[in-house]
Amino acid sequence: QVVDSGGGMVQVGESLRLSCVASGFTFSAFPVRWYRQGPEQAREAREVVATIGSEGDNSTFYVDSVKGRFTISRDDEKNEAYLQMNNLRLEDTAVYYCNVVGIWGQGTQVTVSA
C-alpha cells in the first residue's frame, strides 16, 4: 500500500513537505509519481506534478507550473518519497496523491490561501 501525508493549510509563499510511505512491495524498483487533483477536477483529470526514477535512476520530471518551486526525492531505505513544495501559490490548492507502480495513496489535501 501507499500512504500519503503532510498536507495542510498554508498561505501564499509558504512551504509544505508531502510524504509517501510504501509497503508490501519492492519500493526501490519503481518510479514514484506525485499527482494532484484540483477542486473542480474529476479523478480522470489528475495532473502529474513530479516524477522520480527508480533506484539508480534519479531522473526527475516536473510540470512547468512547479519547476523551481517543488522538489521530488526518495529514500529507498525507508521506502519513502517526498515532495517539497516551496513558494506555494493559490493554484497549488489540490489533493495530492502519490502513485507507485499503479498503487494510489489516499491523497493529502493542500490548501493555499491569500
Tell me about this structure:
With 114 residues, this protein is mainly beta. It is built from no helices and 11 strands. Strands 2, 4, 5, 6, 9, 10 and 11 form a 7-stranded mixed beta sheet that branches. It has a 4-stranded antiparallel beta sheet with strand order 1-3-8-7, with no helix packed on it. The radius of gyration is 13 Å and the shape is globular. The mean pLDDT is 95.
Q: How much helicity do the residues have?
A: under 10%
Count of helix runs:
0
Q: Compute the CA-based radius of gyration.
A: 13 Å
**Overall 3D shape:** globular
List the helices and strands and how they pair.
Layout: E1 2-5, E2 8-11, E3 16-22, E4 32-37, E5 47-52, E6 60-62, E7 70-75, E8 80-85, E9 94-100, E10 103-104, E11 108-113
Parallel strand pairs: 2-11
Antiparallel strand pairs: 1-3, 3-8, 4-5, 4-9, 5-6, 7-8, 9-10, 9-11
How is this structure best summarized?
By secondary structure, this protein is mainly β. The protein has no helices and eleven strands. The termini are far apart.
Protein traits:
single chain, 114 residues, mainly beta, seven-stranded mixed β-sheet, 0% helix, 50% strand, globular
